TrEMBL record:
<feature type="domain" description="Amidohydrolase-related">
    <location>
        <begin position="71"/>
        <end position="457"/>
    </location>
</feature>
<keyword id="KW-0862">Zinc</keyword>
<dbReference type="GO" id="GO:0046872">
    <property type="term" value="F:metal ion binding"/>
</dbReference>
<dbReference type="InterPro" id="IPR006680">
    <property type="entry name" value="Amidohydro-rel"/>
</dbReference>
<keyword id="KW-0378">Hydrolase</keyword>
<dbReference type="Pfam" id="PF01979">
    <property type="entry name" value="Amidohydro_1"/>
</dbReference>
<dbReference type="GO" id="GO:0006208">
    <property type="term" value="P:pyrimidine nucleobase catabolic process"/>
</dbReference>
<feature type="modified residue" description="N6-carboxylysine">
    <location>
        <position position="170"/>
    </location>
</feature>
<comment type="subunit">
    <text>Homotetramer.</text>
</comment>
<feature type="signal peptide">
    <location>
        <begin position="1"/>
        <end position="20"/>
    </location>
</feature>
<dbReference type="InterPro" id="IPR050378">
    <property type="entry name" value="Metallo-dep_Hydrolases_sf"/>
</dbReference>
<comment type="similarity">
    <text>Belongs to the metallo-dependent hydrolases superfamily. Hydantoinase/dihydropyrimidinase family.</text>
</comment>
<dbReference type="InterPro" id="IPR032466">
    <property type="entry name" value="Metal_Hydrolase"/>
</dbReference>
<keyword id="KW-0479">Metal-binding</keyword>
<protein>
    <recommendedName>
        <fullName>dihydropyrimidinase</fullName>
        <ecNumber>3.5.2.2</ecNumber>
    </recommendedName>
</protein>
<keyword id="KW-0732">Signal</keyword>
<dbReference type="GO" id="GO:0005829">
    <property type="term" value="C:cytosol"/>
</dbReference>
């Protein structure tokens, strides 16, 4: 992060946030997932008060914001981030303050962070640590809880967490010997999620196959970042995605597949959806915005920037996934923001096995998605809103508090100028890492204002955030994705057990006669 950016961030953190005044946005195009309309918008007390035809709203005391020539859209929701996290022995540079400030500067106003396990596996204790760390928050947030082992206490803890408003649990099918769970655990946990009305999330890669490939490559002397790439080909992602989808079908539970990076995995999801299964595919800004070419750079620092799991793939995969996101094969785009410093990446200089996996994106996602979906002609602004905000709110039961601009919704709103041009760079970003995977990317379309909880927190060049202003969002279980599942259970049961779910009576004694 550049010195100027540091200064802005620090000044911002101490400046008292502007008194909450009503805002009157005039002359913009209000975009929701279902339509765009020329409309004015009144915001008061952290909420959208009214949306009406141009010139129709009266609010003499409100601060007027000229939105002409701009899109007014729901703030972005990032369904996948790692802030203030310990992963692969390293602490992420971004905490809830710096990561969220960066998010706001990029038009994201809400996120769901991964609660990674504590040493010793205390799930409730681990969750409490994240709640504490999130007291620094500057925007609204919630959590997914990562489960890495299984016993009665875990099942019980899952129930308690659901009661506290957590309704999503994440399972890693990779990172063998560390985070990876067995098929047995998945099968059991999916049933438990079904019971609780919760949504299982999977990191779908075959960790056993990857482990074998890693040993083979290291033996062959391929120890650089390209070894990471070669050890995780698309097929290991596709296989694990298929397995997770089948297990979810078995348990009749909705499934959320995080970071879909390859065409094959996307097609598995699309096929399941076509068959009526409730599978949600999340792709990433890195998947639609970048290909793997720089992993092969002879400059170690450059190559190491892009090491993440599953890997950023070839141009063929990028184009397929981007089109799938635009066209509906995939449902939303997140970041998996887990940015590292170049010094942390250099821990893997002797072996890619020691390099912290992960990339930045929380600040860049909205701009990358706009560039890739809108400027490519693949999608409408409404579809952009759907995949960056509305779908996330619906899947994770935050809708219509979030994900839509309508009376009564939270006033998390962005203004995007479709003609403003800018270039992404680590020298001007607000995350703490000194590297940016989108370095040099030219973007047409810029978030020139972010409103969070009804206050202007980003004015296009400076942040005006307040430490502690962010709120934890409880999310009830049995959301929209659960509607109808009981009926589906009953129908499937009737098909499987034509005479009821009871054993067939047989006269075994007759066998011995
Ligand atoms: O490489 C990645 N994706 N790092 C973050 C952890 C994960 O797998 O989501
Ligand atoms: Zn059980
Ligand atoms: Zn992952
Ligand atoms: Zn992740």
């Amino acid at each position: 992060m550049g010195v100027a950016a540091v200064l802005v961030l620090f000044l911002a953190s101490f400046a008292a946030s502007a008194e909450a005044s009503a805002l009157h946005l005039k002359g913009g195009v209000v975009v929701n997932a279902d339509q765009e309309t020329l409309a004015d918008l009144l915001i008061d007390n952290g909420k959208v008060l009214e949306v009406g035809p141009p010139g129709s709203l009266m609010a003499p005391d409100a601060e007027v914001i000229d939105a002409s020539g701009k899109y007014i859209m729901p703030g972005g929701i990032d369904t996948h981030t790692h802030l203030d996290s310990l992963f692969m022995g390293q602490n992420t540079p971004d905490d809830f303050f710096s990561g969220q400030a960066a998010a706001l500067a990029g038009g994201t106003t809400c996120h769901l962070d991964m609660v990674m396990p504590q040493k010793g596996g205390d799930i409730l204790g681990g969750y409490a640590r994240y709640r504490e760390a999130a007291k620094r928050s500057v925007m609204d947030y919630s959590f997914h809880i990562v489960i890495t082992h299984w016993n009665d206490q875990v099942e019980e803890a899952m129930g308690k967490l659901v009661e506290q408003g957590l309704q999503s649990f994440k399972f890693f099918m990779a990172y063998k010997g560390k985070l990876q769970v067995s098929d047995e655990l998945l099968a059991h946990a999916f049933r438990r999620c079904r019971q609780l009305g919760a949504i299982p999330l999977v990191h779908a890669e075959n960790g056993d196959a990857i482990d074998k490939e890693q040993q083979r490559l290291i033996k062959a002397g391929i120890t650089g970042p390209e070894g990471h790439q070669l050890s995780r080909p698309p097929i290991v992602e596709e296989e694990a995605t298929f397995r997770a989808v089948m297990f979810a079908n078995l348990a009749n539970v909705p499934l959320f597949v995080v970071h879909v990076m390859s065409r094959g995995a996307m097609e598995v999801i699309a096929k399941a959806r076509t068959a009526g299964q409730r599978v949600i595919g999340e792709t990433l800004a890195s998947a639609i915005g970048l290909n793997q070419s720089l992993i092969w750079s002879s400059d170690f620092t450059t190559a190491s920037k892009f090491v993440m799991s599953p890997p950023i793939r070839t141009e063929e995969h990028r184009l397929a996934v981007r089109a799938g996101l635009a066209g509906g094969a995939l449902q939303l785009v997140a970041t998996d923001h887990c940015g590292w410093t170049s010094a942390q990446k250099a821990l893997g200089r002797e072996s890619f096995l020691k390099m912290p996996n992960g990339v930045n994106g929380i600040e860049e996602r909205m701009h990358v998605a706009w560039q890739q979906l809108i400027n490519s002609g693949l999608a409408s602004p409404s579809r952009f809103v759907e995949v960056t905000s509305t779908a996330a709110a619906k899947v994770f039961n935050l809708y219509p508090q979030k994900g839509v601009i309508q009376a009564g919704a939270d006033a998390d709103v962005i203004l995007l100028d479709p003609n403003a041009e800018h270039t992404i760079s680590a020298s001007s970003h607000h995350s703490k890492g000194d590297i940016n995977i989108f370095e040099g990317n030219k973007i047409r379309g810029k978030v020139v204002m972010t409103i969070s909880q009804g206050k202007v927190v980003w004015d296009g060049s400076s942040l005006h955030v307040q430490r502690g202003a962010g709120r934890f969002l409880p999310r009830p279980a049995f959301g929209d994705l659960y509607k109808g599942l009981d009926e589906r259970d009953a129908i499937r049961s009737a098909e499987m057990y034509p005479y009821g779910p009871v054993p067939v009576k047989r006269d075994l004694a007759a066998l011995h006669a």
